[in-house]
């Protein structure tokens, strides 16, 4: 994917310019005084077109973030993108990059190289690890989860509540089911078909050993969509007939629903996870493409 291509993706959002340097300038214009200045730095410091587009894609605050990416020298856009309510870049720790305080509690997972080869910029899970994300990442419909994974033999990828405590499951999650497809589900109580509702993909969209971006858009109870590497993939019902999304007070987790107590589809993850974000809205096709295209180079 070329920078030029990415610029044209953003052109859908912001209106096209044939002058990449000029878009770097747009980032500066779009931000508030201080942030805009940072955006301009990004445009001039790194890949002018890409960094500038990153700035221009969002509001003033995002413009500044786009600039930071340029300062990092990579030219890609900074994480987090598109104003999530919680986000974890795993850049040396599990802090919430949004500043909203949903800092991760690492239990067993270890820092490792990310998909670009950056040291200590993703987490590795060996089958009994998790990163707790606290109990404050629980939006109502519509909402979106986005996560990068390199799956070895994992199952539970992320959930924003407890999905396996004494058989009770609450909140929403993404997992790999026993037959291998991605599954996105919402829960409302004791684990039966009547308390879950969601969708699953065909197993062949899962590529073990490769980094993949998985996005679950929970638009409504009856409208959950799954995207892989930025493109929507076909789904079928997961067989549940649940009629609500219900939250408990439990912490959500990345890598496991509940360390050590997972079973079946919610066994703890084995592999690597990175760049997780949660949005309190349904991302559009274009935004998901942006998320995928936005991470082609080093993240801060
Ligand atoms: Ca990362
Ligand atoms: Ca472990």
Report on this model:
With 300 residues, this protein is of the alpha+beta class. The protein has six helices and 16 strands. Helix content is 22%, strand content 30%. The strands form two sheets. Strands 1, 3, 4, 6, 11, 12, 13 and 16 form an eight-stranded antiparallel beta sheet that branches. Strands 2-5-15-7-8-9-10-14 form an eight-stranded antiparallel beta sheet, with no helix packed on it. One calcium ion binds at residues 108, 126, 128-129. One calcium ion binds at residues 89-91, 114, 121-122, 274-275, 299.
Map the helices and strands:
Elements: H1 3-14, H2 20-30, H3 33-45, H4 48-57, H5 60-71, E1 86-88, E2 105-107, E3 110-112, E4 122-126, E5 130-134, E6 143-151, E7 156-159, E8 168-176, E9 182-190, E10 196-201, E11 211-220, E12 223-228, E13 231-233, E14 235-237, E15 252-254, E16 270-279, H6 285-293
Antiparallel strand pairs: 1-16, 2-5, 3-4, 4-16, 5-15, 6-11, 6-16, 7-8, 7-15, 8-9, 9-10, 10-14, 11-12, 12-13
Helix pairs in contact: 1-4, 1-6, 2-3, 2-4, 3-4, 3-5, 4-5
